[in-house]
Amino acid sequence: MTGPGTLRGVVAMDGPSGTGKSTVSRRLAAACGAAYLDTGATYRAATLAVLRAGLDESAPAAELVAAATAARIESGTDPAGPTIRLDGDDVAAEIRGPAVTGLVSAVSALSEVRTQLVKEQQAVIAAALTEPGGIVVEGRDIGTVVAPDAPLKVYLTASDEVRAARRGRQDARAGRGVDSAVTLADVRRRDRLDSTRAVSPLHRAPDALLVDTDELSVEAVLEELLRLVSERGLLT
Fold first, then answer.
1. pLDDT digits over 115-138, tens only?
2. What is the domain extent for residue 104?
3. Which of 12, 107, 136, 214 could form a Cys-Cys staple with 142, CB 3.0–4.6 A?
4. Is 5 a known ligand-binding residue?
5. Is residue 180 annotated as involved in ligand binding?
């Protein structure tokens, strides 16, 4: 599917894991000639830096912060091939592994880590907006913290079971072992940690439009997003 024009400005895409956020955000960006930023990948890269430093959740917070904030994290914004590098290494596959998944909520809850990464994310957005086309930014605090002035904010949602099934299929495609009960428990654990953390908790911005993806295909969600972008007058 191709969009009817080029995006201008920022589209903020929020929601918990397994709602199809990454897939539809990339597709929307590609359809509208826009850049794309996965902020969750930056927190995963910071978490990998913590693991590479030999630390885990039991380490003092100061040590976790030091390891995470010392890392050099670079995000590529081409929706056709987004990249994430940690100290020069391509870590796109490694950050999706179980070790990072198990620790990322704890690392991303650290206020010093969030403060630094939000500044870096905002710098990427600002740079993208100097070029033709806007940017689609996905994460858990985009509409509330990273880009609170975005002209279009969307909050994707889906049931726990649907999201866990999607995560399981994603893991299977990547060659990772799949246990449905464990995956469902992990989805619920991530939701609990992300929505109750003290800094930038996961929640829907008051002006974000809700899109329930339970019964929608990727194509149907993309069609709805393109309609919303057009309705807001964000295409040139």
1. 999 999 999 999 999 998 999 999
2. 10-229
3. 12
4. no
5. no
